[in-house]
Write a structure and sequence with these properties.
The chain is of the alpha+beta class. 39% of the residues lie in helices and 17% in strands. Strands 1-4-5-9-8-7-6 form a seven-stranded mixed sheet, with helices on both faces. Strands 2-3 form a two-stranded antiparallel ribbon. Helix 2 runs antiparallel to helix 4. The longest helix is centred in the N-terminal third of the chain and has 40 residues. The termini are far apart. The structure holds adenosine-5'-[phenylalaninyl-phosphate] (FA5). Adenosine-5'-[phenylalaninyl-phosphate] binds next to strand 5, strand 7, strand 8, strand 9 and helix 11.
């Protein structure tokens, strides 16, 4: 046993000197100290050693094991040091006088609002899904009961690509895929509850409340007997959670081919408190969350029986919600890359009307 242990030690010493980096060393560790490694196999041979020699043989093996463990540790320190030196030598532009800054990055205000909403909806049992930004006509329009002549399909509104595809104009473009993906929920007697935030693109004239790239958050809920009351409950809960206090909203009829009936949920402008300003185009209100009961044709296109199931959908304007949430007067700030403006919201609470945020 002594001979075998010494042989193992020699074998290890030879190999450890050839290790060039931490990965080689890890290989060695596994080879010698792993569960099926050489030390373990030597240990298993202890059972063949006569009882009166077992103790001494065990000690010898343990000493070799200890030796290998220590040698690996030492070699590791040596290799790490060499690696650091290699990196320093390789960095041609390495500047030792470069100031070390403690400045931290921050989340974009839209990310903050999106995460807040995701938490609120997740607490109400909603799943969160992501969807493509490049879609086809079927998903963006046809599956949503949007007829061929509808103005939304106009080149004026939609960015078409040479591949016959288009940039998603609204998050509703994911509805069909989501309904199909979650059919199993209904089969298991559970409602479909999903939100799917995303970036949208429209060929819009840009002003204080319109961008050509903005974010929406869509949500759908489908089950037996879902009604407008469910829709209103979820909208109210969501808004009171986001703003953490009463805000004034109004619901008015709205037309979207994919819902029937459809509504526009407007929020009183929190920048001017309803008096009228450029952020709300002087109306005192901002269109925030169109919604409605999912049209039977949309349910059918999604593979669901409209005789059996009903549901609601909403398409929240996430960028506009962030404006109201943080008192940002001009939507163009969001895509401005102006870090000074964008980094001040991480710890912000709801901004009261008239409170200025530069
Ligand atoms: C839609 O996009 C529908 N897909 C919403 C919907 C979903 C209705 C489900 C019914 C059921 P609309 O075009 O109104 O609707 O846009 C929804 C929201 O996105 C608007 O209320 C607004 O808050 C925001 N939005 C729309 N266009 C812009 C834009 N150019 N810049 C910033 N936000 C915008």
């Amino acid at each position: 046993m002594l001979e075998k242990a010494q042989q193992l030690k020699l074998q290890f010493e030879e190999k450890v000197n050839t290790a060039k980096n931490p990965a080689d060393l890890e290989q060695l560790r596994i080879e010698f100290l792993g569960k099926k490694g050489s030390v373990a196999s030597l240990m298993s041979e202890l059972r063949n050693v006569p009882n009166d020699q077992k103790k001494e043989a065990g000690q010898i093996i343990n000493e070799v094991k200890q030796f290998i463990e220590n040698a690996i540790k030492e070699k590791n320190v040596e290799l790490q040091k060499l690696e650091e030196e290699r990196l320093i030598n390789a960095a041609e532009d390495y500047d030792v006088t470069f100031p070390i800054t403690e400045e931290k990055g921050s989340y974009h205000p839209i990310t903050l609002v999106q995460r807040e909403l995701e938490d609120i909806f997740a607490a109400m049992g909603f799943s969160i899904e992501d969807y493509d930004e490049i879609v086809d006509d079927y998903h963006c329009f046809e599956a949503l009961n949007i007829p061929k002549h509808h103005p939304a399909r106009d080149m004026q509104d939609t960015y078409y690509l040479s591949t016959n595809q288009l940039l998603k104009t609204h998050t509703s473009a994911a509805q069909n895929a989501i309904l199909k993906k979650y059919t199993s929920e209904l089969e298991a007697d559970r409602p479909i509850r999903v939100i799917f935030p995303g970036r949208c693109f429209r060929n819009e004239k840009i002003d204080a409340c319109h961008e050509n790239t903005f974010f929406q958050m869509e949500g759908v809920m489908v089950d037996k007997d879902i009604s407008i009351s469910n829709l209103i409950y979820f909208m109210k809960t969501m808004l009171s959670e986001v703003f953490q206090q009463d805000i004034t909203v109004r619901l008015r009829p709205g037309f979207f081919p994919f819902v029937e009936p459809g509504f526009e949920l407007d929020i009183q402008c929190t920048i001017c408190g309803g008096k009228g300003c450029p952020s709300c185009k002087d109306s005192g209100w901002l269109e925030l969350c169109p919604c409605g009961m999912i049209h039977p044709n949309v349910l059918t296109a999604g593979g669901l029986d409209p005789e059996k199931y009903t549901g609601f959908a909403f398409g929240l304007g996430l960028t506009r919600l962030a404006m109201m949430r943080y008192g940002i007067k001009d939507i163009r700030v969001f895509n401005s890359c102006n870090l000074k403006s964008l980094s001040q919201f991480e710890n912000a609470t709801f901004t009261q009307p008239e409170k200025e945020v530069k």
